[in-house]
């Protein structure tokens, strides 16, 4: 799994990859420090269920506010700021 997509305790969330002709795999990280990975369809499904079960029960320290990402428009070269993601979603 590419490191820029892998969740960490600093960037909690879940990442699931299901390649067309490969084995599905997933990873999640919680801000409490819990890290899990899975490979194969049944194990990925179980990991997602574990994530959904764990998140509401976990009460770690709150995350620091997220800094909005900036992007450069390839058409005009101008920098734009994307809205910050809320903590309620995945990533």
Word description of this protein:
The protein is 19% helix and 23% strand. With 91 residues, the protein is α+β, with helices and mostly antiparallel strands. It has a domain of 60 residues. It has a three-stranded antiparallel beta sheet with strand order 1-2-3, covered by helices on one side. Strands 4-5 form a two-stranded antiparallel sheet. The longest helix has 17 residues. The radius of gyration is 16 Å and the shape is flat.
Secondary-structure topology with pairs:
Elements: E1 13-17, E2 25-29, E3 35-39, H1 41-57, E4 70-72, E5 79-81
Antiparallel strand pairs: 1-2, 2-3, 4-5
Please state the average pLDDT score: 76
Rg over alpha carbons: 16 Å
Query: Biggest β-sheet: count, sense, barrel?
Result: 3 strands, antiparallel
Number of strands: 5
Secondary-structure element order, N to C: EEEHEE
Proportion in helices: 10-25%
User: Number of helical runs?
Assistant: 1
| Low-confidence blocks of residues | 83-91
Structure summarized in a few sentences:
With 91 residues, the protein is an alpha+beta fold.
Which features would summarize this protein structure in a list?
1 helix; 5 strands; two-stranded antiparallel sheet; three-stranded antiparallel sheet; alpha+beta; flat
